[in-house]
Amino acid sequence: NLCKYSPRQEVLRDAMKFASSSRILGDYLEFGVAKGASFSAAYHLARRTGIENPSNGLPTMHFYAFDSFKGLPEITETDEDEDHIFRQGDFAYSKHEFVETLLTDRVDLAKVTIVPGWYKDVLNDVTREELSLTLAAVIFIDCDLYTSTVCVLDFIAAYVQDGTVLIFDDWYSFRGNPNRGQQRAYREFLTNHPEYHSAPFSRFGFHGHSFILSINAHRQE
């Protein structure tokens, strides 16, 4: 029962509304689920906006959670910062704590797939073959670091469709430096994938930004 939306909830609400109204059929992926607050909100907001409602005639959304459940990985030189904001092991919550949050918030666990492990170890073709995932409607990326975000973007490239919403929770980390963190990772992703066009969707809070990806005509052909 959300009487007042947080910035994260607001962008998730808008993303789900956009996906529902645009009939973007696909699943929800979240990378860096921590204790599960944003993930739980995404589930309920999807239901409220209609995209997760069997009565609307659309295939229902499945929800995928990716996390090491051990906090941040070792901080490499690329992600070191003078303020020491990020440290290895930060934001560590167990899989059990995550599931407990979902149960408390009445999330249907039959609609949830949890993929535990370090991104460098699990975001690969083996995992792709194990999942029933085909297309993504909304993707929430909350993994803080450049190196982690690169792994995520490489993995999700196979699931992006015309209209997929990408939400970056840590867009303005590293003092907002465009050559660091998620901003750098996303710029490189778009360079490596010229078939995608990125349009700004919604900024949220002091830390986040989101985008809508569309597919250039030459790929559609």
Question: In summary, what is this structure?
Answer:
The model has no long low-confidence stretch (mean pLDDT 89). The protein has a seven-stranded mixed β-sheet with strand order 3-2-1-4-5-7-6, with helices on both faces. The chain has helices at residues 7-21, 37-49, 95-104, 119-122, 125-130, 146-156, 181-192, 217-220, and strands at 27-31, 63-67, 112-116, 136-141, 165-168, 196-204, 208-215.
The secondary-structure class comes to alpha/beta
**Biggest beta-sheet profile:** 7 strands, mixed
Cα-to-Cα separation, first versus last residue:
45 Å
Average per-residue pLDDT, rounded, comes to 89
Q: Indicate the proportion of strand residues.
A: 15-25%
Shape: globular
Spell the H/E element sequence: HEHEHEHHEHEHEEH
The amount of helix comes to 25-40%
The radius of gyration computed from the alpha-carbon positions, rounded to a whole number of angstroms, is: 17 Å
Number of strands: 7
Number of H- or I-type helical stretches: 8
Write out the strand line-up for the largest beta sheet, numbering strands in chain order.
3-2-1-4-5-7-6
Low-confidence stretches: none
